[in-house]
Amino acid sequence: MGVRAQVLGAAAGGGLPQWNCGCENCNLARRGEIPAQTQSSLAVTGNGMDWAVLNASPDIRQQLAATPALHPTGPRALPLRSILLTNGDIDHVAGLLTLREVQPFTLFATAEIHRVIAENPIFSALRAEIVERRTIALGQSFELAPGLTAELFPVPGKVPLYLEGDTVQTDLVGEQTVGVALTAGETTAFYIPGCALLSDDLRARLDGAALLFFDGTLWTDDEMQRAGVGSKTGQRMGHMSISGENGSMAAFAGLEIGRKVYVHMNNTNPVLRPGSPERAEAEAAGWTIGQDGMEIAT
Length: 298
Fold this sequence. Notes:
Blueprint: E1 4-9, H1 24-30, E2 41-45, E3 51-54, H2 60-65, E4 80-84, H3 90-93, E5 105-109, H4 111-118, E6 131-135, E7 141-145, E8 148-154, E9 178-184, E10 187-192, H5 200-206, E11 211-215, H6 223-227, H7 248-251, E12 259-263, H8 277-284, E13 287-289, E14 295-297
Parallel strand pairs: 3-4, 4-5, 5-6, 10-11, 11-12, 12-13
Antiparallel strand pairs: 1-2, 1-14, 2-3, 7-8, 8-9, 9-10
C-alpha cells in the first residue's frame, strides 16, 4: 500500500472557532452552520497499522479520541509510533505535554527544533527513558514508522513567535521550518503546513508528487487586518496567501501533483465556508480544502 493520511486538525493556531474571536467564520462554527476545525496536525501510516503524527497540536487529546485507528489496543498499547515536528510553533508543540502519560514513542525533529524544546524545562515531562528524542538532519531518509520513510527538507519560514527579536526574517531557509516527504511503496506524499515562498527548488521537489498537504493559512495577505482581528499580514507571519499573483494557487499552476490539499487555515479564511466563492475558486484550481477527519490514500 502507499501513504495513507488522515487530517487530525485542519485549522491554524487557535482552531475554529477560536476562543476569543467573533469573526464571521467563528460565529458560524459556534452555531453549527459550518464545520468546526481543530488545530494543525496530520496522522500518517504506510501499512495501516503503525502510525506517526506530524505536529502535536494543543488539541491532540481530542484528535486522538476522534480517530479510531489511533485508539489504544491494550492497557498501554498504542498504534502511535512517533511524533514529528515541522517547526517550534506553539500550535505544533504544545500537544507534547498531553502525551506525557508514560507512553513510549519517538520524537523526531531537526537539531534546531530539538534545541528549542530542550531549552524549555516543562518538556522534561516527556521522560527521556520513555520518549526517545531523535535528531534528523535535512536530506536524511529515516523510518518514521514501520512501512513509512520520511525526509525533511528546508522551507522558507521564520522562527516561532516566542523567539522573535527586534528584526524578523520571514523567509529563513534552514532547520527552523521544514517540509516532510513521506514514502510508502512506490508513492510519495508531502506535508508543508507553513511556507513563506514557493522557491524554484521547492517547485522542482514537489512536481510529480502523488499527494501534497500545503499551507492554506490566509486567502489574502491582509485578511486579518480586513477582518479587524489582527495587525499582521500573512507575509509577516511567514505564510503565503492562497489567492493573488503571489499566492499559492498561482505558484502551483503548471505543476503535476496528483492531489493538492490545503491545511492550516486561519479562522478568518473564507475557504472554510462551504459554498463560498473563494472555496469554489480554490476547488476549481484543483485544490481540496482539508477538514478534520478527512482521510486520503495514495
